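Side project, low priority. Logging it here so it doesn't get lost.
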Amino acid sequence: MIASLFLFWSIFGLLFAGAFISLQEFPKTNILYTNFLVYSSLVYVAWNISNWIWRRIPFSKEKVVTEGRAVFVTGCDTGFGHELAKKLDAFGFTVYAGCLFPTGNGAKALKEFSDGIRIVRVDVTSDVDVSESRKFVEADLKRSGLDLWAIVNNAGILASTEIEMGSMETFKSQIEVNTLGVIRVTKAYLPLLRKIKGRVVNVASLAGRFSIPGMVGYCVSKCGVISFSEGLRREMKKWDIDVITIEPHLFNTNLVNNEANHRILNKAWEETPDDIKEAYGDKYFSGYQVFLNKVLGSARPRIQHVVETMFTAVTDQFVGPSYQVLGDVESLRVWMWSFWPTRALDFLSYYAAIIQTGQPAAKLKSIYDKKKRL
């Protein structure tokens, strides 16, 4: 902590000195207002630079103690959770791997990897399931003389449809797993974290900060995770329990399975009311399927980048409140999204989608009728 503050004040001092010298050249009008803007900007810049440097220097990577400590991870059947469970076990933690299918291939693979990984059946959408998992973990902690250091809320689903397609079930199912599942598990396990002043790590998404056409249900659910995490972190400060969000770009896990997503999309289209289907048209729907293929096809292959970041959030002594996991191109895009006018972003999002889908049938008809009248 002392070293990180020293780094911040060193950077701020250098920036302050440069700004102070530069300001001597300015006319002395509105000097109070100018100073406030300049120095508040310097604090912001110095803070971000020091954070960037701090995360890349070796002595900032001091790790937490693993002896006598356990971690509970949800969504361990496949993907990020599966790999994280193995990595945390190899590092020395006792791992409670929450699986929806405790006799499935994913759970079996974890058992084969290590006897130290303890499989826990948990459906995060079920109050009963979560309560039973908590009882099992609590009893096992006492029997083994362990403390719960962290919970990692990783379980999640994705259903890609446009808002008017399908029923409310598309939204409900994603919010139930991605948002309420996180809240449900966290509320159940928080009392176990108090003794050791542990951590909550919630897997959100960049989609929770920037809404994407065709994935709005998912974006809403992940936005809820970010909002919940920020509020929880502030409430848990009195207990010295930290809360960290992991916010990846799209990565190639079962979440973006092309076949499963198209099956969900086709089902949603079948459930769409006839008048809405007529307004959009089959040609538009076919175009949207092409658009979905391109979005899912852009998923980054190296899921270990996300797993490493999750591992950092659990094991580093000093951690940030949130970690975004994305490549250089995505970093530039996120920077642009942060500064561009909303209307410009609306147009870009619209254009990126419409070149694949084409205009809806009802709009094309309206344009044709208007030209006819002229």
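Brief comment: Residues 169-194 form the longest helix (26 residues).
Revisit when time allows.
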